[in-house]
Amino acid sequence: MKHRGRFAVVLVTAPDLKTARKLARAALEARLIACANIVPRIESHYRWEGKIESGTEVLLVMKTTHARLSLLEKLIVSTHPYNTPEFVVLPVQGGSRRYLDWVWDCVKNRAAQPD
Prior knowledge:
Layout: E1 7-14, H1 17-29, E2 35-48, E3 51-65, H2 69-79, E4 88-92, H3 97-107
Antiparallel strand pairs: 1-3, 1-4, 2-3
């Protein structure tokens, strides 16, 4: 596989569907992701400011390349309503060549050198 080890799945939670859709759209328009899956109504339990909290959130599962991670993180942090948004990167170890070629083509920066 010509792109082995160059892909990532990014997890981001959002407070609601409207915010999740806005984040996904902004990342797609900036060519920072090829795809975002939006999983509504997840139940999150976490520690925040010394207390255990819980709430309903929306999970975004975004597919991108390692070369686009820094810009994607900047976009999420700058547009997300949370002070400390989740931005967790999971490396992709393999996958369908056709799918990964599609991801690569979607996010490559056409104005710069190839990733």
